[in-house]
Amino acid sequence: MQRICLAPGTVEAPAWPGIPGWLGRLLISRGVDSAQKADAFLHPSLDQLLPPKLLHQMDGAVALLTCVRDAGERAVIYGDYDVDGVSACAILKETFDLFGLSCGVYIPDRHQEGYGLNQAAVEKLAGEYQVLVTVDCGITSVQEVEAAKAAGMRVIVTDHHRHLEQLPPADAVISPLLGDYPFPSLCGAGVAWKLATALLGEKAMPLLEIAALATVADMVPLTGENRVIASFGLRQLPDTQRPGLRAVMSRAGIQGKVSSEQVGFQIAPRMNACGRLDSAMIALNMLLTRDPEEAERLALRMESLNSQRREEEDLVIREALEQVRQMNLIDARAIVVCGDSWNSGVVGLAAGRIAEKYAYPTVALARNEDVCVGSARSAGDVDIYAALSQCSDLFVKFGGHKQAAGLTIPYDRVGEFRERLSRAVSEQSGGQAPRPGILCDGELTLRDVTPDTVRWLEMLEPFGIGNANPRFLCREARPVSMKAVGADGKHLRCLLQQDHESRDGIFFGGGDLAGQTDGCYRLAMTPTVNEFRGRISAECRLYGMELLPESLEDHPAREMLSLLADPRHEEKAEPLTEEELTPLLACGQGTLLVCRCRETALEMHDRYPQTEFSVGKAMDPLAFDTVLLYGAAGRVTAPYRRIVLCDGGLGETAAWERACPAARVYALPESQALKRLLSRAFVDVDALRNCYQLIRGRLPRDVYDAAALFSLTPPKAAFALGVLGEIGLIDFAVSPFGVRLLPMVKRSPEESPLFRLARMGKEETDVSHGV
What we know:
Layout: E1 3-6, H1 21-29, H2 35-42, H3 58-70, E2 75-78, H4 83-99, E3 103-106, H5 119-126, E4 131-135, H6 142-150, E5 154-158, E6 172-174, H7 188-200, H8 208-217, H9 224-236, H10 243-251, H11 260-277, H12 281-288, H13 292-325, E7 335-339, H14 347-358, E8 362-368, E9 371-377, H15 384-389, E10 397-400, E11 404-410, H16 414-429, E12 437-440, E13 442-443, H17 451-458, E14 472-485, E15 491-498, E16 501-507, E17 520-532, E18 535-548, H18 556-563, E19 574-575, H19 578-584, E20 591-595, H20 598-607, E21 612-615, E22 626-629, E23 642-645, H21 653-659, E24 664-667, H22 672-681, H23 685-697, H24 703-710, H25 714-726, E25 730-733, E26 738-741, H26 753-768
Parallel strand pairs: 1-12, 2-3, 2-4, 4-5, 5-6, 7-8, 13-14, 16-18, 19-24, 20-22, 20-23, 21-22, 23-24
Antiparallel strand pairs: 8-9, 9-11, 10-11, 14-15, 14-17, 15-16, 17-18, 25-26
């Protein structure tokens, strides 16, 4: 369960004219700390763009390209196969055409050549072209640039990745990370567009829409120049004159205004699928073509590749998650998964999904015989490039930045890599387990979820890295309904209520919460607009729902059924005192506090507030210390090392040992809450005999039907079924509920451990009350 809380540093609402207080607080949290800056942020302007000549060696590159054009020589644009690289190629191809410079484009094959310049390609290109211009690559390709120079080529490197201490010996190296350029976070296509503006001036403005695609897709910070590029480029897309983009957007169902989310989740995946599964030239030709019929053919091919990409991605993710479930994530601080049949073009997507799910930096590797090619994705504040750098002696090659990287490694070094990467990440994080959580930018109530709030939020777009879609804390809302929707019930549609206000909610990926309407939840949400049959209403886009344990109501029948969920035998758990329990929770992972009674669970969670709280099941492979209420051993798959029976050992030790083979099972002394529950639920011999006779006439459908049949309270009915099951008169299952008659035999309730325990508790209670 993810913790939901406010981001630190919450400030008072500023008194900025015309701006709601909640929006002012949000802007301040993003470094926008004055009314003037707020106006500039909410209303991006082309005037905010920096002169391209400020970029390192830009003037030299322009002079060289001018000479090349005037001499009638040819240039080749050498790119990359992702959206950023393809977009950068398209920008410079059209720029050089307009500039009058004859050129070609070369994009290496992802599977055969890999990322960046390679010597074989350079030598081949040197026979046809006199100038090599790299985009989105080349900054670390010292030897390859030397080879190009030796072959007689002049070289211009444009890149945005981190450089080595030694720069390549190019004629010009353009990078926002070199020199004194004020904004270091341009993507590769952003750098290419700056070169285009240096060559073409205002004629480069139509290319801004392509730069915007890459700026969003490459996950660079959407602040400063990137915010301007993305904002104005996205505004151009609805009216784009590019038949290819129109065809792709049509197939993606994008109409009217184009958001950064639509680029990131609909357009970019289709473009990336080309390089992952076929050739990136398909995406490049889509951007460049002016033929509507060709555009439709290319868009159809991209749609087919994207469907194939989804299938292969799902396969990798399923197999990778199965590997994760077998891992010891208590000691590890990074995840490395590897598969023989995986497509190296989709492992980066899988790494990103796993990193997001578990908050661990993740590397996914596709094995091809003795070599693995893979992608890394960061999580939290971990600098994945720095962590990988500590393992660089293991790699054939690698490169990247703080959030993502690519690498090639011999298969026989993967085991060592897994251990060393985990240590490197641990050093960065101080050894602490990365705890998934959601930091919210501010607070809203359900009453605040209105179309007007959504309109204000739209002024913050485009959203992305550095300007994330805001998430707001809603402190307490009660779900009226929770229904699984979508394919395989992966998503959640709910109706939420707070202070007589109701709002619909949608939680993508939250389908496992379906039906859990007990209690109240703390929400991480963003107001959005839902349009249905012409009716516009505001609803909640949910990113997290955290149960508030204290909001759970008493449920004695469920407590009683929880006692009956696991079979009991004579094995005794290892006795434990509360003083001995505290040290077991010191590291934050590996301990499960099993509580049958609500009162016990709330006491334990109050005493150890750092613990997670779960109802019914515990399946997180991270095995954070958790208070589990109403849990059964069969619904626990997390690799816990310590099981603590907080209401006392009732003979279910063997069941927990089977569920968690690596765990030791402890038991605290029998709780007062359990004694009270058993005392209230106790049914004497005569009543049990009557229940058995009634069952022989009709089998109950659930515990409430049994209560009506027996004329008992639901807890007493559950107790009766449990005792009759233990002495072998019926076959009784708690989940799913089921009762089946067994052959009649003579049995005594005293043969039931549950009956004996409850009778003794009842006698103690009667004595204490003077009965």
